[in-house]
Design a protein that fits this description.
Nuclear Transport Factor 2, Chain: A; about 210 residues; alpha+beta; 5 strands; 5-stranded antiparallel β-sheet; single chain
Length: about 210
């Protein structure tokens, strides 16, 4: 005869676990409910994967900004290219450099005149001292009213030119004519003025 089972006898652990799976339950065996923090993190990841959408106004702003940026770049590039072309044209031949130099002095555009001076000259003289020198010449001898390129001789990367410069302090005063002897050099494919020597002044009728 089997001994009678006590009413308060504990069931085996396996029996207690198996009792969790009631008939009709949809939870698979061994299922562990997720932690609350895991659920929040999963929701954040889901929201992060949503596709970003733009309104019509936002798209117009984006397109307009891109077009504006391209236009600005194109303008800057055009200005830079134009400056290079102008500079190359100015320094193409000794005569064009001389014309640029004396025309700039006539209009007292000392910045432009300084730009065609040789790199070695500019290394020793800054633009301020250059402008001061030639502005004092204008005060003492009168402003340039005209100039004539008489001769230009080129030999390799050197050139020598003679220029008649006519100055006058007023429209009615007689012009003062000087002859400049200009030494030039070819540097990196461009002509520059290296030095200027002015001869004795000659008074002539104003023109």
């Amino acid at each position: 005869m089997k001994p009678a089972r006590s009413g308060n006898q504990q069931r085996p652990a396996s029996a207690s676990l198996s009792g969790l799976h009631r008939p009709g339950s949809s939870l698979p065996p061994g299922y562990v409910p997720p932690h609350r923090g895991d659920l929040q993190e999963t929701g954040m990841l889901a929201r992060g994967t949503r596709k970003t959408t733009f309104t019509r106004r936002q798209l117009l702003w984006l397109v307009g900004g891109a077009v504006g940026f391209v236009v600005v770049i194109a303008i800057v590039a055009t200005i830079a290219l134009s400056s290079l072309v102008i500079q190359a044209t100015i320094s193409a031949t000794p005569d064009t450099v001389l014309s640029t130099f004396y025309s700039s002095l006539r209009t007292q555009d000392y910045t432009q005149a300084y730009s065609v001076m040789a790199p070695n000259y500019r290394a020793l003289h800054d633009e301020a001292s250059f402008a001061s020198r030639f502005s004092q010449i204008d005060v003492l001898n009168g402003s340039i009213v005209s100039f004539e390129i008489q001769t230009t001789t080129t030999s390799g990367n050197r050139a020598t030119a003679t220029i008649l410069v006519h100055r006058s302090s007023s429209a009615t005063a007689p012009a003062t004519t000087t002859q400049d002897t200009v030494q030039m050099e070819l540097n990196s494919g461009s002509w520059y003025i290296d030095s200027i020597v002015t001869s004795t002044q000659i008074s002539t009728p104003a023109t």
